[in-house]
Amino acid sequence: MAYRETEMMRERKAQARQRIIECAWESVTTGGFRSARITQIASMAGVATGSIYRHFESREELFAEMFRLATQHEVDRVAQALTGPETAAQQLENALRLFAERALRAPTRAWALIAEPVDPKLDEERLVYRRAFARLFEGAIRDGVLDGSLPEQNARLASTSLVGAIAESLIGPLAQASPEPCEAADLKPNELVDAIMQFCMQGLTGTRSQP
Question: For residues 12 and 54, is the Cβ–Cβ distance under 8 A?
């Protein structure tokens, strides 16, 4: 008789897989990808090291899955900020500010998601991550042009420019959490966020954004 997996067994496997992902994310949030070891993750999850490879073919696959889930959470938070009674331009500023503030509140986590050198598979996932944000921003820019809160412009080009500008502006400060720190901005977090917002919104509207 052929072996048939029961619903209970499938549920247990799904729970174990989710627990491994959660522990991997906890490890990355604490020390970045550089400190996340399969043996440590297995210990945190309460499973044997070999058990992890029954759920994920490799360390890279585990990290890629964890990265997808973590970044989708960030994308969802930004998408939520792009709703409400404000003009599209104000919603966009709210979303950009949220992105920057969340990154600076958890620099190790943000560094891991935005820029930490890992492997080509994670670099591919980062491109997907950036495109997701760009699509959200593009929609908001188009809405802003329609409601008159933003001037006529190339929404697709402007959205990708926003993603690049905010990510690159944060890399220096976030790199303090990396194994090879680089020079950080000599600004307090709120001052840095205000400066980023001023640059982004001035580029979109042609006028200075008020802190």
Answer: no
C-alpha to C-alpha distance for 64 and 58, rounded to whole angstroms: 10
Assess contact for 20 and 41: CB atoms under 8 A: yes
Instruction: Tell me which CATH code domain 1-56 carries.
Output: 1.10.10
By the 8 A CB rule, do 25 and 66 touch?
A: yes
The answer, yes or no, to whether residue 3 has pLDDT greater than 80, is no
Query: pTM higher than 0.85 for the full model?
Result: no
Domains of the chain, residue spans: 1-56, 60-205
Give CA separation, 179 vs 66, 124, 150, 185, 198, in Å: 21, 22, 41, 17, 30
pLDDT range class, residue 180, cuts 50, 70, 90: very low
Task: Tell me if 141 sits within 8 A of 159, measured CB to CB.
Answer: yes
Q: Classify domain 60-205 by CATH number.
A: 1.10.357.10
d(CA 66, CA 85): 34
